[in-house]
Every structure is written in C-alpha cells, then in structure tokens.
Design brief:
- This protein has 2 domains: 64 residues, Winged helix-like DNA-binding domain superfamily/Winged helix DNA-binding domain (Arc Repressor Mutant, subunit A), CATH 1.10.10.10; 160 residues, Chorismate lyase (3-Layer(aba) Sandwich), CATH 3.40.1410.
- With 244 residues, it is of the alpha+beta class.
- Strand 1 and strand 2 form a beta hairpin.
- The strands form 3 sheets. The chain has a 6-stranded antiparallel sheet with strand order 4-5-6-9-8-7.
- It is elongated.
- Helix 1 packs across helix 3 and helix 2 packs across helix 3.
- It is built from 7 helices and 10 strands.
- This is GntR family transcriptional regulator.
- InterPro entries: Bact_HTH_transcr_reg, Chorismate_lyase_/UTRA_dom_sf, Tscrpt_reg_HTH_GntR, UTRA, WH-like_DNA-bd_sf, WH_DNA-bd_sf.
- It comes from Evansella vedderi.
- Keywords: DNA-binding, Transcription, Transcription regulation.
Length: 244
C-alpha cells in the first residue's frame, strides 16, 4: 500500500487523490466498484475528514468517481476520448476502440429551417430541410442525441435515409446521391441535460453535456449538413494537440 508523506510540501489531499487514482489505473478498482468511505480512508491513511473528503471530491469533479446518494462513491466508466485534430466518424472511432456502435433512428421528416440553419446551409427563403434525429450508442449505452439537417433539394428520395444505422450518413450520401463530404467545422458549448434529452440518454436532468454544432461541406465547398449533437459529458471527452 502506498503511504502518504506527511512531511512533504505536497498537500495530503492531493497525495491521497493520486493514490486513489493509481488504484483505479492499476485495476485494483474497476468501473462500478465501490471505493472505501471517508471514514475508512481516514483510518487507513491517518488523515482528517476534510483531507479524505477533498480527495474524493476532486476525483468526482474529474469524472473518475461518482456518488450515489445513500450508497457511497463508485468508480466511473472510462470516457470515450476523441482527438479533434482530424476529421472523424463516431462509428469508426468506436470500432477502433473495440466497441460496438449502433444508431437508433428516432425521426425523419421535412421541416422548415431556423434562421441559424438557413445561414449555415446557405438556403433561400422557402427552402426546407430534412431532419434526421437519431440516438447514437456504444455497446447499447446511449452517448449522443443527434439531429442532422440536410437541404431537401439534394435528397431526391427521403426513404433512402432509413438505411442510416446500417450505413453511415456520409457513406449513404456518397453512395445514393453522389455527395462527398470532405470537411466540417464544429463549435463546442457546455450545456446541461434537459428533461426530454435525459429520457433518451438515460442520465439525470442537469448532468453536464456538450452541445456540438457541425457544418459539413462537400468536396465542392457546398454546405450539406447542419448537425446539433448533445453529448454526455460523463462518457465522452474531446481533446486537441497544439504545436508551436
């Protein structure tokens, strides 16, 4: 068992935090396992309640642990990590990580675009869009609630879109409509899970999430998709690499 260095300049809570994290990283505790209580940590490491509490609180804030009222503190499932360096596909990322992706189509219909969509997709007055609403899961666990909006003028047969789930949206556009998506730009914004979203994502209202807005372009530079995704903050993590 690793010991705390009481004479170190490193605060005791931070030392304890790193010891707990190492137990998770080394597989001593696995996702779903309950960790020792504050009282047990106080006794085991001879620290104050405030030290034990702060170490746990920081791990909860980092998403490494989670609390269940009246039951204790447990090890979280590892987050799905995705680099923003290159163009990516959610399904392909999951497959590369050994997970089984699946899409549940919730709705496909013609709708009138908002002013934001009209601007993003460069639409004229009176033009409609096709909304494709789907729930994106990994190993049967919902991760993303997503709505894609495509200009109706480019989709000659809306029924073809029912194939999504057996084939990716971009592959389908390429195969059926000769539309090749070559680039996209995305904006990220922290949000909280709302009531209707929590039902689909199987998580609590008010939990942290990311709102991702994507505009995808064809190889000719034509905007073909405006996409809004609500991504579970407890299950996904995005990062980028910077060079000087």
């Amino acid at each position: 068992m690793m010991q705390l260095q009481h004479n170190s300049v490193i605060p005791l809570y931070h030392q304890l935090k790193e010891i707990l994290k190492a137990s998770i990283d080394n597989g001593i505790w696995n996702p779903g396992d309950k960790i020792p209580s504050e009282n047990e940590l106080m006794s085991q490491y001879e620290v104050s309640r405030n030290t034990a509490k702060k170490a746990i609180e920081e791990l909860v804030q980092d998403g490494i642990l989670y609390r269940v009222q009246g039951k204790g503190t447990f090890v979280s499932k590892p987050k799905l990590e995705q680099s923003l360096t290159n163009f990516y596909s959610f399904s392909k990322v999951l497959k590369e990580k050994g997970m089984n992706p699946s899409d549940t189509l919730l709705n496909i219909e013609n709708v009138f675009p908002t002013s934001k969509m009209k601007e993003a997709l460069e639409l004229s007055d009176g033009e409609s869009v096709i909304e494709i609403k789907r729930l994106r899961s990994a190993n049967k666990e919902p991760f993303i609630l997503e709505s894609s909006f495509l200009p109706s003028k480019f989709i000659k047969d809306i029924h073809v879109l029912n194939r999504i789930g057996t084939i990716s949206l971009y592959d389908l556009l390429d195969e059926e409509f000769n539309i090749t998506v070559s680039r996209a730009k995305e904006a990220f914004e922290p949000v909280l899970i709302r009531d209707n979203e929590s039902n689909y994502l199987e998580t609590e209202v008010g939990k942290p999430a990311l709102l991702i807005e994507r505009i995808a372009y064809t190889d000719k530079g034509v905007p073909i998709e405006f996409c809004k995704s609500i991504v579970r903050g407890d299950r996904c993590r995005f990062y980028t690499e910077l060079t000087k």
